[in-house]
Amino acid sequence: MFKKLKTELFYARRMSQWGYGLRDWYRYVLNKFFSLQLLARVKPIQCIEDADFELHILAPRNGLWMAYWAIRSFMYYSGHCPRVVIHDDGSIDDKAKWIFENKLPNAHVLYRKEAERLFFSDPNIPDLVKKYRRECKNFYIMMFVDHFFLSKSNKVMVMDNDVLFYNKPNEIIDFLENKNVLDAVFYGSEEWDGNPLDVTEEYKNKYSSILTDASRLNSGVIVFNKNKFDYAKITEYFENVTKPHGDLIEQTGWGMILCQNPHKFLPEERYVFRGSIGPSVVAKHFTKPRRHEMFARGIDEVRKRIGV
C-alpha cells in the first residue's frame, strides 16, 4: 500500500509540474481506476485474422484497458489483425476475461495456470528453460519464455501493454510482409549506454560482436521470425546467466538471442519514450516513470485520432 501511495504521489507531482489541467486529471482517474468499466462499454470490433501472425502481451487485470488500446491502436494503423494472446499474470478473473474477449474476437486470455500446464507438459521445451521458468522469482521471465515457446505462428510480436500507436508503423509492416531480410525488429536506442548484461564473461566473449545491441534492446515492442531461432540458443543463454532472479533476465534474454540474427532497431525518433506525441511519432512507450502520461493524455489521444 505504501509503495502504491508513493507512486501516486510521484505521478501527481509530475502532473502538477507539467501543468496538467482538470481535464487531464479527470482522464487520469477515469483511465486508471475505472478501466474495466470503460472496457465493458466499448463496442466490439471485427477483423479477419492474419494467417501466420500472433501478438503476445503479459497483462494484469487492471492493465487490460491499457492492453486493449495497445492492440487496437496497432491494428488500426498497421492494417493487420494478429491472433492476440493475453498472458494472465495471475490476477485476471472470469469476468475480466469474458469482457476482453468479447471486445476483441481475435483475442484469447491465457490464464497463468493454463500457460504453466502447457509450458511444463511440452516435451520440446528444454529442461533448463523449464527449470528457470519454475524457479525464477522475477515473473517477467514469462515475457520471454512464455511468449517465445507458447507462440504458434512464425511471425510473432511481443509488446508491453503500455505502448500506443499514433501513426502507420511502416517498419513493422515491411517486416510482416517480408519486404526486408531481417529476422527481428525491436524498440531500443543507439544513443544510450544500455543495460548491464548479467551473463558470464565466457558468453560475452563468444558473442562480443552483438553485446552493444543486446544491451540497448528494449522489449516494449519486438517482432521476430520464430522459425529462424534455435531453442538450443535459449538453453545456452540460461547456462550462462549470472543473476538467476535478476530484474533484466527477460530483456537480456531477448537481446542475446535476437541480436545473433539479422536485426534492426525501430527508429527512435519515431518510436519514442520521451516527449510529446508529435505528428511524426509512430508509437510511444509509456514506461513506468511516464505512465501518468498514458492515462492522462495518451489513451484519449489515440481515441481522438481513430475516431472512437
Task: Characterise the protein shown here.
- The protein is an alpha/beta fold and 308 residues long.
- It has a single domain (20-306), classed as Spore Coat Polysaccharide Biosynthesis Protein SpsA, Chain A.
- It contains 14 helices and 10 strands.
- A 7-stranded mixed β-sheet has the order 3-2-1-4-7-6-8, sandwiched between helices.
- Strand 2 (83-88), helix 5 (94-103) and strand 3 (107-110) form a beta-alpha-beta unit.
- The two termini are 35 Å apart.
Number of helical elements: 14
CATH top level assignment = Alpha Beta
Please report which band the strand proportion falls in: under 5%, 5-15%, 15-25%, 25-35%, 35-45% or over 45%: 15-25%
Could you give the distance between the termini?
35 Å
Estimate the helix proportion, in percent.
40-55%
Output mean pLDDT: 96
Number of domains: 1
Quaternary state of this entry equals single chain
Rg measurement, Å: 19 Å
| Gross geometry | globular
The second-level CATH architecture is Alpha-Beta Complex
In short:
The protein has 308 residues and is an alpha/beta fold. The chain contains 14 helices and 10 strands.
Keywords, separated by commas or semicolons:
single chain; 308 residues; alpha/beta; Spore Coat Polysaccharide Biosynthesis Protein SpsA, Chain A; seven-stranded mixed sheet; three-stranded mixed sheet; 14 helices; 15% strand
